């Protein structure tokens, strides 16, 4: 199955919202205030988690105390996949977030539904590594903004629930560098800043070229 085929897979939805997995027991939506831990590194894994609203950051604390964010999850996305029975990262609500726990029935064969979700997460992780491998901070931020826009339906206006510090910890940059790149993109007329957590993409082609 190609990356493009995986990206185009759409699962059935409930009330036009998030994907519903046949055979998964849907728990009521749990509310997590901003900064609240959903699960911790080292905790027992098992269920999956589906973002109903808000956003989640998945991160790990490095030996020197620094934080490395490995993923952001937006409304409609599923997270919590692990290769074994333990969580290897922390998951935390970025802002006021609703999360639904998906408990898989022991007798349910959901491999055909879970495989595309797991592969999407793997491809996104690989793309993240490619972004981190770039030397230019401008390229990293541009690729990040293009990704965020695509995950929000390709609209001109992009909501950024995460802070500049979060973006820096995701891209391997300092908060000062992230802020300078945003200002540079604004001065070049590529984006228009609507606030700290929102922007408008004015020149999508230019932004995509920068991020390639």
Structure description:
It is a single chain. The protein has 212 residues and is α+β, with helices and mostly antiparallel strands. It has two domains: 3-130, Jelly Rolls (Sandwich), CATH 2.60.120; 134-211, Arc Repressor Mutant, subunit A (Orthogonal Bundle), CATH 1.10.10.10. 33% of the residues lie in helices and 26% in strands. It has six helices and twelve strands. The chain has helices at 3-7, 111-132, 137-151, 164-171, 175-187, 204-211; strands at residues 24-26, 30-32, 37-39, 48-53, 55-61, 67-74, 78-79, 90-93, 97-104, 157-159, 191-195, 198-201. The strands form three sheets. Strands 1, 2, 4, 7 and 9 form a five-stranded antiparallel beta sheet that branches. A four-stranded antiparallel beta sheet has the order 3-8-5-6. A three-stranded antiparallel beta sheet has the order 10-12-11. α3 (137-151) crosses α6. The longest helix has 22 residues, at 111-132. The radius of gyration is 18 Å and the shape is globular. The two termini are 24 Å apart. The model is unreliable at 1-20 (pLDDT under 50).
- Measured distance between first and last alpha carbons: 24 Å
Average pLDDT for all residues:
82
Q: Can you tell me the CATH superfamily of the largest domain?
A: Jelly Rolls
Shape summary: globular
Q: In oligomeric terms, what are we looking at? A: single chain
Instruction: Report the structural category.
Output: alpha+beta
Major sheet characteristics: 5 strands, antiparallel
Strand content: 25-35%
Number of domains: 2
Question: Unreliable stretches, pLDDT < 50, 5 or more residues?
Answer: 1-20
Regarding CATH, which class of the largest domain? Mainly Beta
Task: Determine the number of helices (DSSP H or I, runs of at least 4 residues).
Answer: 6
At CATH level 2, the architecture of the largest domain is Sandwich
How many DSSP-defined strands? Answer: 12
Q: State the helical fraction.
A: 25-40%
Order of helices and strands: HEEEEEEEEEHHEHHEEH
Radius of gyration: 18 Å
CATH topology of the largest domain: Jelly Rolls
């Amino acid at each position: 199955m190609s990356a493009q085929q995986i990206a185009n897979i759409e699962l059935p939805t409930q009330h036009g919202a998030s994907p519903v997995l046949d055979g998964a027991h849907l728990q009521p939506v749990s509310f997590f205030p901003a900064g609240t831990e959903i699960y911790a590194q080292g905790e027992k894994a098992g269920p999956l988690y589906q973002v109903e609203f808000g956003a989640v950051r998945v991160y790990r604390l490095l030996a020197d105390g620094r934080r490395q964010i490995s993923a952001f999850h937006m409304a409609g996305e599923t997270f919590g996949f692990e290769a074994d029975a333990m969580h290897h990262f922390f998951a935390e609500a970025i802002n006021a977030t609703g999360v639904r726990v998906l408990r898989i029935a022991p007798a349910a064969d959901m491999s055909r539904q879970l495989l595309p979700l797991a592969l999407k997460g793997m491809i996104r992780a690989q793309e993240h590594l490619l972004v981190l491998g770039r030397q230019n901070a401008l390229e990293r931020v541009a690729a990040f903004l293009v990704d965020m826009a695509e995950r929000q339906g390709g609209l001109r206006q992009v909501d950024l629930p995460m802070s500049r510090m979060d973006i820096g910890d995701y891209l391997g940059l300092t908060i000062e560098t992230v802020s300078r790149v945003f200002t540079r993109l604004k001065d070049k007329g590529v984006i228009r800043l609507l606030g700290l957590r929102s922007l408008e993409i004015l020149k999508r082609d230019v932004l995509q070229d920068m991020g390639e």
